[in-house]
Write a structure and sequence with these properties.
27% of the residues lie in helices and 20% in strands. It is an alpha/beta fold and 104 residues long. The N and C termini lie far apart (54 Å).
Length: 104
């Protein structure tokens, strides 16, 4: 994830893309105060997609979000971070089943 304010440019997206590829990350997110240029968006789209094997879905490999978009409810498009495993059923033990600790 990279956060920038001030003058942003397509080179910033290329740098993020290079970091994602070099570090072996699945995705990268660029958050900016300024509205991204068309060249920046083109550079992000050209990075392609990350395919989530667990969810069987594609997500943009490089995403650009503005602070304004985030304040209006925009979210990073990524696989859910929960719900991958079925939750075990809760079991309540009877008081007589609890093991006794020897604290003596």
């Amino acid at each position: 994830m990279q956060v920038k304010s001030g003058k942003v440019k397509s080179g910033d997206i290329r740098d993020l893309r290079g970091t994602v590829e070099r570090e072996g990350a699945a995705m990268g997110v660029f958050i900016t105060l300024e509205e991204p240029s068309r060249d920046m968006r083109t550079e992000a789209v050209s990075a392609g997609f990350y395919r989530s094997k667990g969810w069987g879905q594609d997500y943009p490999k490089i995403q650009i979000l503005t602070i304004e978009e985030l304040l209006h409810g925009a979210e990073i498009k990524m696989p859910p971070q929960y719900g991958t495993f079925k939750e075990a059923q809760r079991v309540r033990m009877q008081e007589s089943e609890h093991p006794q600790l020897d604290l003596g």
